[in-house]
Fold this protein.
Amino acid sequence: MAMKAMDFKRLNRVDLFRAVLRKGPAARAELASLLGVSLPTVATLVRELEALGLVESSGELPSTGGRKAAAVAPLPDARAAVGVDVTRNHLSMAAVNLRGELKGHERPHIKFEVSDGWSGRAGHMVRDFMERTGVTGDSCVGVGISLPGIISEDGATLQRSHLLDIRRHMRFTLPLGNGLPQRLFNDASAGCLTELWEAGEPGSFFFLSLSNSVGGALVIDGRLVTGANQRAGEVGHVTLRPDGERCYCGKDGHYDVYGSALNLADPAGGRLEDFFERAESGDRAFGRILSSYISSLALVSVNLRMLLDCDVVLGGYVGGFLGPHLARIRAKAAAMDTFQGNAGYIRLSRRKMEGAAVGAALHFIEEFIQGV
Ligand SMILES: [Zn+2]
């Protein structure tokens, strides 16, 4: 069916808004040529976005010809979204604006349990956080909640989480008392949404989430592939060593046993920073732990490459520390590769911190931008 004129106009408005958000203050003429529309069309769209309080005419930009060009600037803080990453012992909270910039993040300690008490306390923490970061009422477009478990397709039900000890389907919301839309995300998928946003262009990659549990998410041509049962990418439960140690799920030798961040954090008293500092300053015992961690990671990465033939992005808590070790991970993976002598396809996640909380928030930002 042919698109109606209104649809074209809305698409133009979305494109223009995206371009202004991306570029910062931009000349109207530049926007017109970028979008392939006339200057009067740009003027109309800018007026509409101004009326929505999303951009402002910012006077003039210096232009190369010496004359000043009329410019448009975004108002990125006109809206914001909040993401909450729930783990066994913490609540990571992040607020982001329309450009995906972090307005604030906090990670208070709170031990998870299925109880009204936990819900009440967690809801309180999120409300206080929103107040402190100035994200309230009309300016917030939604609250995304990231969980280490399987989430229903509609984002309303937590179907299962070994880590949170939930084995039955459970509606999951935070009592925020503000009527804002909420949506649940698997933690690895949420981290992956951050990577997708930062990449800026549709591509294909596998996002390997190396946090206290291991997860993964697959993006093909810019779209998250969730699978028939919302379990695509559950690489933590791929069997790496059939006779290996027991996974928290009850089966033996799964990759989670070798890839969990706890392998590194626990020997260092719980802090990954301390682990890497000691491993990198020549501590032999820590060096051996890191070597073994890297070997498993390289093995999983090359297997993912054989199956999917796309980039493998290292994210999660551990991903943020792997920069100095990337060459070694790549060398080990390349040694197992049938088709190529290098493993440049293994790369680091662009966002080093709070990827899951940020990604859960970015879902709502993206939805808002698409709907302007
Ligand atoms: Zn398992």
Remarks:
- The longest helix spans residues 284-308.
- Residues 237, 247, 249, 251, 254, 256 surround zinc ion (CB under 6 Å).
- The chain has three domains: 5-74, 78-193+357-370, 200-348.
- The domain at 200-348 is CATH 3.30.420.40 (Nucleotidyltransferase; domain 5).
